[in-house]
Amino acid sequence: MKSSNLGYPRIGEKREWKKSLEQFWAGKIEKEQFLSQMEEFRLQHLQKQIDNGIDLIPVGDFSFYDHVLDTAVMFGIVPKRFDYNSGKVSLETYFEIARGTKDAVAAEMTKWFNTNYHYIVPELKEVVPTLVENRPLQFFKEAKQKLGIEGKPVILGPITFVKLSKGYSSLKEVVQQFIPLYAEILMELQAEGVEWVQIDEPILATSLSEEEVNLFADVYQILHKAAPNVKLLLQTYFDSINHYEEIISLPVQGIGLDFVHDRGENLASLKKFGFPKDKVLAAGVIDGRNIWRTNLEERLWLLNEITELVSKDRMIVQPSSSLLHVPVTVKSEETLEEVLKDALSFADEKLSEVVILTKGFRDGKELIDEEIAASTKAIQALNESTFRNNQQVQNTIQNLASVRAEREAAFYFRQRAQEERFHLPLLPTTTIGSFPQTQEVRKQRLLWRKGELTDAEYEEYINLEIKKWIEIQEKLNLDVLVHGEFERTDMVEYFGEKLAGFQFTKFGWVQSYGSRCVKPPLIYGDVSFQGPMTVKETLYAQSLTLKPVKGMLTGPITILNWSFVRDDISRYEVANQIALALRKEVELLEENGIHMIQVDEPALREGLPLKRENWESYLNAAVYAFKLATASVQNKTQIHTHMCYANFEDIIEAINALDADVISIETSRSHGELLYAFEKNTYDKGIGLGVYDIHSPRVPNLEELTRNIERALQVLDPKLFWINPDCGLKTRGLEETVAALEVMVEAAELVREKL
Ligand code: GLN
Ligand code: ZN
């Protein structure tokens, strides 16, 4: 029996990796220096795993940007718009694909399954894949030469790789092109004497068709024949596998299953169908996606349950997925509450948990009694702490049935009341919330955080910004104004800092895409309202204008999906706690005369479960939490929501069920598709179409905006139609923002006249 790991974070304890990359991109360090720094990080990360005592250490998971892009360039897959002929893809071209050049747009990037990591989408159109370098072999050799270890090369499997790519029509045909290349990689690894190869096929944790499942049998048959002496470990993660019987009979030597995020389904399959005697089971029993300390006793118990079906000598103990999705080490956190810090486990701590668990499981529980006791104690202490025992919150949660989560009247009646309250023109114009967060805004906040600016001075500065932008909006003649969100760094962090139940780490970064890292808040206790969060700024803005100012909150599901969430209660319960706290804020705004309130849910869609069959329960819970936060207002109060995408055709029922009076969505980049969605489905409430793309500094022209609006009005009721940019403007500069909004207002007026 062995301990293993699936992948290790690239970014380093203090984000050294990010800094090195960005210095290289900025021309501040030479290529040689960059490459040697990267090698140093890569070896350090391996050394840590060696020191921890991990038996099977992954090699080749390290990357300069993204492992899907690594796989693509290994096959010479470079989109035609970049400079490339043949042979090994240069470092320069590699970064060009990821980041674009002044003449060629970067390759698209999208979410890696249901995580917050984004990969570069390979473009298979018009390219013939060839093996231009054997990366796994290269990294295997490096680890052997430099550190004297026999690593476990990690490769992204062919079917997942092609499924994540674009620009092809027949999956089967394209996969067939790749089989000989994968076979070549494996044969070379075999020649080098490699024992285990981890081949990642996380696509197996999604819903697959019959045909796709059959493809696995064909592909792995060939790969096995090509390199029969290499032990292939077919690795799945993030959910259970639906086609358990077919998958366990594939001609591979090991199967990796996730026993953390499978809702007990993998274990159930194991019990129902057994496990082949000639294979190894790599059991992912330590959460690779969340940051909580492992309950060793409970996990040992699970491992023992598995040994009723698989003998110990055929088992591997490992995290449920790569540790890419958690921060590096708890050690750096010096300011956290002790009871919380004790109950945390980041990548390094998870590695030692894997090793401890392996030892206890292999050589006897008594050997790890001490560690078990310590883990139980830490988890218990947090569970019993006041942070997780807010009686008031828990009582309300238990009596949710008595909390009204439906608006007083149906939309039709509310619409009348709101018309009377606001007297807006047809096609009202507004924005999504934030205005440019300039260098100066960020500088002032930093000074304030360092204590160099008093609260009063900082507040005065924020008020000046609000005032400036209210004047600009007045001058632009927008119909519904916003205060501009200058007091917020981040739309989740801002609320997390004001609500009880959240904590922020100092170095708890995880890679989001390329060198960009995010530091998700920790929701560790019962969430509750502690005092007004947005009232002051909103009322100040409203005091400066007669036009309505729209209040601006982040919704419960977005806060949930962009945080590390406690796992002792269900995620939905946490969402409801957040919703109840936001409900208080909504009510406070309303009491103070703010009758338009936007509750943003940009992360609603990305929280969808991997498998279609689990969507409904997620969407029901999301809709409920949103309504819990918003439904207590009067008819005349208009609830808005915002989402940064238009592809909600498949979730339109849920969007409708949110019962928001107005939704604003992104559409400027996907106009045609949107209209198609509306022709087929009926969305019968207010809708604001993003009429221009805020992701670029380009100022749109009058003609294109007018055209966008008129096209939408062919299918949408002008009485329900709003005009706004795609998303918040915080990343834009002042001048381009004003110029673009000017054109937007002018376009609205032009179209209005013709109605
Ligand atoms: N109100 C937020 C803003 O304007 C919305 C951001 C988002 O949708 N991601 O910045
Ligand atoms: Zn948005």
TrEMBL record:
<feature type="binding site">
    <location>
        <position position="562"/>
    </location>
    <ligand>
        <name>5-methyltetrahydropteroyltri-L-glutamate</name>
    </ligand>
</feature>
<feature type="binding site">
    <location>
        <position position="600"/>
    </location>
    <ligand>
        <name>L-homocysteine</name>
    </ligand>
</feature>
<feature type="binding site">
    <location>
        <begin position="516"/>
        <end position="517"/>
    </location>
    <ligand>
        <name>5-methyltetrahydropteroyltri-L-glutamate</name>
    </ligand>
</feature>
<keyword id="KW-0479">Metal-binding</keyword>
<protein>
    <recommendedName>
        <fullName>5-methyltetrahydropteroyltriglutamate--homocysteine methyltransferase</fullName>
        <ecNumber>2.1.1.14</ecNumber>
    </recommendedName>
</protein>
<feature type="domain" description="Cobalamin-independent methionine synthase MetE C-terminal/archaeal">
    <location>
        <begin position="427"/>
        <end position="749"/>
    </location>
</feature>
<dbReference type="InterPro" id="IPR006276">
    <property type="entry name" value="Cobalamin-indep_Met_synthase"/>
</dbReference>
<keyword id="KW-0486">Methionine biosynthesis</keyword>
<feature type="binding site">
    <location>
        <position position="642"/>
    </location>
    <ligand>
        <name>Zn(2+)</name>
    </ligand>
</feature>
<feature type="binding site">
    <location>
        <position position="18"/>
    </location>
    <ligand>
        <name>5-methyltetrahydropteroyltri-L-glutamate</name>
    </ligand>
</feature>
<feature type="binding site">
    <location>
        <begin position="432"/>
        <end position="434"/>
    </location>
    <ligand>
        <name>L-homocysteine</name>
    </ligand>
</feature>
<keyword id="KW-0862">Zinc</keyword>
<comment type="pathway">
    <text>Amino-acid biosynthesis; L-methionine biosynthesis via de novo pathway; L-methionine from L-homocysteine (MetE route): step 1/1.</text>
</comment>
<dbReference type="GO" id="GO:0003871">
    <property type="term" value="F:5-methyltetrahydropteroyltriglutamate-homocysteine S-methyltransferase activity"/>
</dbReference>
<feature type="binding site">
    <location>
        <position position="485"/>
    </location>
    <ligand>
        <name>L-methionine</name>
    </ligand>
</feature>
<feature type="binding site">
    <location>
        <position position="600"/>
    </location>
    <ligand>
        <name>L-methionine</name>
    </ligand>
</feature>
<dbReference type="Pfam" id="PF01717">
    <property type="entry name" value="Meth_synt_2"/>
</dbReference>
<dbReference type="Pfam" id="PF08267">
    <property type="entry name" value="Meth_synt_1"/>
</dbReference>
<feature type="binding site">
    <location>
        <position position="644"/>
    </location>
    <ligand>
        <name>Zn(2+) 1</name>
    </ligand>
</feature>
<comment type="function">
    <text>Catalyzes the transfer of a methyl group from 5-methyltetrahydrofolate to homocysteine resulting in methionine formation.</text>
</comment>
<keyword id="KW-0028">Amino-acid biosynthesis</keyword>
<feature type="binding site">
    <location>
        <position position="727"/>
    </location>
    <ligand>
        <name>Zn(2+) 1</name>
    </ligand>
</feature>
<comment type="similarity">
    <text>Belongs to the vitamin-B12 independent methionine synthase family.</text>
</comment>
<dbReference type="InterPro" id="IPR002629">
    <property type="entry name" value="Met_Synth_C/arc"/>
</dbReference>
<feature type="binding site">
    <location>
        <position position="111"/>
    </location>
    <ligand>
        <name>5-methyltetrahydropteroyltri-L-glutamate</name>
    </ligand>
</feature>
<dbReference type="GO" id="GO:0009086">
    <property type="term" value="P:methionine biosynthetic process"/>
</dbReference>
<dbReference type="InterPro" id="IPR013215">
    <property type="entry name" value="Cbl-indep_Met_Synth_N"/>
</dbReference>
<feature type="binding site">
    <location>
        <begin position="15"/>
        <end position="18"/>
    </location>
    <ligand>
        <name>5-methyltetrahydropteroyltri-L-glutamate</name>
    </ligand>
</feature>
<dbReference type="GO" id="GO:0032259">
    <property type="term" value="P:methylation"/>
</dbReference>
<feature type="binding site">
    <location>
        <position position="485"/>
    </location>
    <ligand>
        <name>L-homocysteine</name>
    </ligand>
</feature>
<feature type="binding site">
    <location>
        <position position="666"/>
    </location>
    <ligand>
        <name>Zn(2+)</name>
    </ligand>
</feature>
<keyword id="KW-0677">Repeat</keyword>
<feature type="binding site">
    <location>
        <begin position="432"/>
        <end position="434"/>
    </location>
    <ligand>
        <name>L-methionine</name>
    </ligand>
</feature>
<keyword id="KW-0808">Transferase</keyword>
<feature type="binding site">
    <location>
        <position position="642"/>
    </location>
    <ligand>
        <name>Zn(2+) 1</name>
    </ligand>
</feature>
<dbReference type="GO" id="GO:0008270">
    <property type="term" value="F:zinc ion binding"/>
</dbReference>
<feature type="domain" description="Cobalamin-independent methionine synthase MetE N-terminal">
    <location>
        <begin position="3"/>
        <end position="309"/>
    </location>
</feature>
<dbReference type="InterPro" id="IPR038071">
    <property type="entry name" value="UROD/MetE-like_sf"/>
</dbReference>
<feature type="binding site">
    <location>
        <position position="606"/>
    </location>
    <ligand>
        <name>5-methyltetrahydropteroyltri-L-glutamate</name>
    </ligand>
</feature>
<feature type="binding site">
    <location>
        <position position="666"/>
    </location>
    <ligand>
        <name>Zn(2+) 1</name>
    </ligand>
</feature>
<feature type="active site" description="Proton donor">
    <location>
        <position position="695"/>
    </location>
</feature>
<feature type="binding site">
    <location>
        <position position="644"/>
    </location>
    <ligand>
        <name>Zn(2+)</name>
    </ligand>
</feature>
